[in-house]
Design a protein that fits this description.
globular, five-stranded antiparallel β-sheet, alpha+beta, two-stranded antiparallel sheet, Peptide Deformylase
């Protein structure tokens, strides 16, 4: 079982790397790692389990956050219809996005960041993501609102981008920078995912 001890914190070099594509079909080890990521989110959202193991509640987790530089994310949240999205995904990719933008009024947080970061993060209101599930099925998801924000946050992790690289303090309606225009802390350009 993954715990907070397994989550690397800001400053760790893996968080700034561009994660490697997972070859299909994934290895047994990759499947097990991704399942553990999904399980972490389930445990972190259960009050009793979270308290017992000292877990911070999370809605998303990317493999680089557990020091695995591979393109894998886990998400457990609800969509705009309040339906549960609980997925472990290999090689998620945003294939289209809306012109409209959105942001979380309270700002974004991250399991790898132990401090409060002021400001909001402009995100695209709607996105379409293609990926391969833990079960090996290729899927296409149309997401909007909070779920779209969660997926964008996690996919950023796969490109070495932290949410605070995109934070703005005074213009929440600013267009989000496409990934190719985001310069990470090391000064290197991050590629489009």
């Amino acid at each position: 079982m993954l715990t907070m001890k397994d989550i690397v914190r800001e400053g760790h070099p893996t968080l700034r790397k561009i994660a490697e594509e997972v070859s299909m079909p994934p290895s047994q080890e990759e499947k097990e790692t991704l399942q553990k990521m999904v399980d972490f989110l389930i445990h972190s959202q259960d009050e009793e389990t979270a308290e017992k193991y000292g877990l911070r509640p999370g809605v998303g987790l990317a493999a680089p956050q557990i020091n695995v530089s591979k393109r894998m994310i886990a998400v457990r949240t609800t969509d705009h219809r309040d339906e549960l999205i609980e997925l472990g995904l290999f090689n998620p990719k945003i294939v289209s996005r809306s012109v409209e933008t959105t942001f979380l009024e309270s700002g974004e947080g991250c399991l790898s960041v132990d401090r409060e970061v002021k400001g909001v993060v402009p995100r695209y209101s709607r996105i379409k993501v293609k990926a391969t599930t833990l079960e090996g099925k290729e899927i296409s998801l149309r997401l909007k609102g909070f779920a779209a924000v969660v997926f964008q946050h996690e996919i950023d992790h796969l490109n070495g981008i932290m949410f605070y690289d995109r934070t703005v303090e005074n213009d929440p309606y600013k267009k989000p920078l496409p990934p190719k225009e985001v310069i990470n802390r090391s000064g290197n350009e991050s590629p489009v995912s």
